[in-house]
Amino acid sequence: MSAPGEQPPGIDELLDRVRAGYQRIEALQAHEAARSGEALLVDIRYAALRERDGLIPGAVVVERNELEWRLDPQGSHRLPEATGHDLRVVVICNEGYASSLAAASLHQLGLHRATDLVGGFQAWRAQGLPVEPATA
């Protein structure tokens, strides 16, 4: 929050601030962490993008507006994968912007290992990593 009379940050400054609070992960690192069981990939892209571009095999799809409720280990609406605050979560959006804000929100819930994918789904795909068609 800004002090009275102080200019609030713009989105670029806000992204810089939240990203300074954790280490982001590159696509190849995220792929290996998921393959080895060290990380849970969470795709927060909206349905139209998933339908257009496909899905990352093994990633859990959670709409952005449900993310905190589904990943809070103490929450009554949590996913079975939300086993504790030590869970390493890699949040994936389309290009790596909304996921940064989402990861910061997860940090506020105590998920201190939450991070996001640099470049988002588009970086994943550009690296030639696995993508499967979305099924209706």
Explain what this protein looks like in three dimensions.
The chain is of the alpha/beta class and 136 residues long. It has helices at 11-19, 27-35, 47-53, 67-71, 98-108, 120-126, and strands at 40-43, 60-61, 89-92, 115-116. The chain starts with 10 loop residues before the first helix and ends in a 10-residue tail after the last helix. The mean pLDDT is 95.
Short account of what is shown:
The protein has 136 residues and is of the alpha/beta class.
Keywords:
136 residues, alpha/beta, four-stranded parallel beta sheet, 6 helices, globular
Strand order in the largest sheet: 2-1-3-4
Mean of residue pLDDT values: 95
What is the number of beta strands?
A: 4
How helical, in percent, are the residues? 25-40%
Main sheet characteristics: 4 strands, parallel
Gross geometry: globular
Beta fraction of the residues?
Answer: 5-15%
The rounded distance between the terminal residues' Cα atoms is 42 Å
- The number of helical elements comes to 6
> Helix- and strand-based class?
alpha/beta
Order of SSEs, N→C?
A: HHEHEHEHEH
- Show unreliable segments: none
Rounded to an integer in angstroms, the radius of gyration calculated over CA atoms is 15 Å
